[in-house]
Amino acid sequence: MDSGQTIFIICELVFGAFVTFLAIMLWPRTRDIAWMLIIIGVIVLYIEIVYSILVIFGMGGGDLFFIGSISLISLILMLLRMGFLIAGFLVMVLRQYKNK
């Protein structure tokens, strides 16, 4: 692993942890379903970051199931993250069109 990849991993962990911390701090303050879905999407993003780093270091369980050359766990985490974000933004968009 070269120094560029090390800096990338450290930045990804630090900024990911910070955004996840802010999302968790916002969680009890909101009862809005759209924001809750987006917060869950951010938390899944951090889980995805940690899992990808574990795979880089050889400690992830990414070698069990593959779809082509992609790990099934990585694919599921990405789809969960995007699914929660899509659902949150969709709720916001539908709410805006409903109010007009």
Characterise the protein shown here.
The protein is mainly alpha-helical. It has one domain. The protein contains three helices and two strands. The chain has helices spanning 3-26, 33-56, 72-99, and strands at residues 66-67, 70-71. It is globular.
In short:
With 100 residues, this protein is mainly α. Helices cover 76% and strands 4% of the residues.
Determine Rg (CA atoms, Å): 16 Å
Average pLDDT, rounded to a whole number, is 90
Largest sheet: 2 strands, antiparallel
Question: Regions with pLDDT < 50 over 5+ consecutive residues?
Answer: none
Structure classification: mainly alpha
What is the share of helical residues?
over 70%
Distance between the termini: 54 Å
Quickly count the helices. 3
Q: Let me know the number of strands.
A: 2
Overall, the morphology is: globular
The proportion of residues in beta strands is: under 5%
Total tally of structural domains: 1
Note the run of SSEs as H and E.
HHEEH
Order the strands across the largest sheet as they lie in space: 1-2
Could you give the topology of this structure?
Layout: H1 3-26, H2 33-56, E1 66-67, E2 70-71, H3 72-99
Helix pairs in contact: 1-2, 2-3
